[in-house]
Structures are given as structure tokens and as C-alpha cells.
Amino acid sequence: MLSITARNLASALRGSLVGTSSRVAAVRCLHGTEESAEEFDKRYEKYFSRDGIDGWEIRKGMNDLLGMDLVPSPKIIEAGLRATRRVNDIALAIRWLEGCKDKCGDQKATLYPYLLEKITPTLQELGIPTIEELGYDKPELALKSVYDA
Q1: What's the domain count of the chain?
Q2: Contact partners, residue 129, CB within 8 Å, separation at least 6
Q3: Which Pfam families match (predicted)?
Q4: Does residue 19 belong to any structural domain of this protein?
Q5: Do the domain assignments include residue 26?
Q6: Has this prediction a pTM greater than 0.85?
């Protein structure tokens, strides 16, 4: 599959270097249209809110989101949590929360509490504990640092 994609890309680039305008237009169309943040949020909310969505599709959507260079909005996080509750997969809900926390990166001290504040009503409604309530925020077998007094 990779070789087919590489071959198609090479032929498209070759055509654009020669000056064939139809191939240049085809390459430009590959980028698609830009969508606003609201449209992006609605698309993923709709994806997670579908009737009949199963665990595999939920995992696929979550994996796609966590692979992007962004932190999911609270609305998307809530939609993902509701989807995990519909399929009755608490482990997936916890992993979703861990993934969203990890996506906060170096802004974890400010961004993650904001996200928790926004999604706490949904967590309570669905009966899903936070990572901190479960004690998953600290490693179980961690040793005290020799540098701590």
C-alpha cells in the first residue's frame, strides 16, 4: 500500500515539475478544505454519539484524536465518555481520561484542572471516577526519591 501511494505521489510530482496543470490541480485537491474548530468538535461529537457504535469504533476515534496535535475539547471528551458508558467499558473511559491528560503536555498544571472542571458533572452523572480518585496518578511501586527531604 505504501508503494502504491509513493508511486502515485511520485507521478503527481513528476507531472507538476513538467508543467502539466491538471496534475498540479490534483495535488492541490489532496489537502482538502479547512474546517473550523466548531465544525471539528461537532464532527467528533456526532461520531461518538452515533447509535450502534461499538468499542472498536470508539477506540478508533479516540486513537485518531490522541494522535493529533491538539487537546480534545471538553465537549468531545464528554461525548467519548458517554460512548464508553453506552458500551459499558469503564477501562476505556479511564484510558480516555489518561490520554486526554497526557495530551496536555507541559500545560498539565493549568489545562488538565480546567478540563476536569468542565467534565466533572458528566463524570458524576455517568459514575466514572477520575484518575486521581482511583490513585492512578501515582505509580503503585514508586520509590521515594533520594533527593526529597
Answers
A1: 1
A2: 94, 123
A3: COX5A
A4: no
A5: no
A6: no
Percent of the chain whose predicted confidence (pLDDT) is above 90:
65
Cα separation, 19 vs 13, whole angstroms: 10
Render pLDDT for 69-116 as a digit per residue (tens, 0 to 9).
999 999 999 999 999 999 999 999 999 999 999 999 999 999 999 999
Q: 115: closest CA among 128, 125, 133, 103?
A: 103
Phi-psi region of 33 (alpha: psi -120 to 50; beta: other; left: phi over 0): beta
Tell me which residue range forms the domain holding 52.
Answer: 37-134
What is the pLDDT, as a whole number, of residue 74? 96
71 burial class (0-12, 13-18, 19+ CB within 10 angstroms)? buried
Mean pLDDT of 136-142: 79
Give the percent of the chain with pLDDT over 70: 78
9 within domain boundaries = no
